[in-house]
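Help needed: design a sequence for this.
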């Protein structure tokens, strides 16, 4: 009886091994692996402001000399109390693959001969003039889907000679003797618009 039992156990083990082998071959037909690589283009972020590269900065500062057209009583390209002029910012986004927002914060430069420069308004791409309060930031978006490569923002500046101005009449007069430019400082910040 011991021999019959050993034979039965041997046949059972052989059958079990045969069964495992058959199952392994059956499922092995569907056991595959694949390895591959994908190539993806990284979005470009190469913004120029008045031909100045801001790629490595999330914000940039630029000192700009305003253009003054002159009036009947004030010569062109000079500034005098109540003079009005403009500064153009040209944002070139032709090498940018994402939508982004910009914030422009105007201020008078510390080395400006006139500290009473104020920004009274702005236009975008020769659109309608939008009035702003002095010191107010300008924020807008440039959407990639709009396919706009150049955005021109014109800031209108004025020599404030009102009762609220910082400079006295004597300081106004002395500014003309300094023979230095009136300078407006602009801080411009760019941020990608997330999905």
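Sure. Designed sequence:
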């Amino acid at each position: 009886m011991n021999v019959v039992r050993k034979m039965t156990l041997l046949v059972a083990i052989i059958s079990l091994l045969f069964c495992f082998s058959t199952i392994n071959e059956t499922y092995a037909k569907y056991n595959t692996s694949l390895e591959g690589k994908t190539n993806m283009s990284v979005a470009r972020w190469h913004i120029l402001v008045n031909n100045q590269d801001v790629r490595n900065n999330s914000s940039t500062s630029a000192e700009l000399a305003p253009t003054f057209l002159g009036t009947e009583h004030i010569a062109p390209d000079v500034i005098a109390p109540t003079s009005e002029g403009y500064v153009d910012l040209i944002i070139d986004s032709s090498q940018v693959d994402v939508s982004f927002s910009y914030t422009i914060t105007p201020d008078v430069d510390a080395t400006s001969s006139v500290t009473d420069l104020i920004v009274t308004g702005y236009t975008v791409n020769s659109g309608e003039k939008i009035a702003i309060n002095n010191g107010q930031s300008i924020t807008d978006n440039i959407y990639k889907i709009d396919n706009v490569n150049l955005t021109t923002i014109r800031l209108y500046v004025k020599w404030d000679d009102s009762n609220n101005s910082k400079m006295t009449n004597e300081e106004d007069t002395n500014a003309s003797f300094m023979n230095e430019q009136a300078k407006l400082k602009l801080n411009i910040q760019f941020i990608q618009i997330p999905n």
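The CA atoms of residues 6 and 141 lie 85 Å apart.
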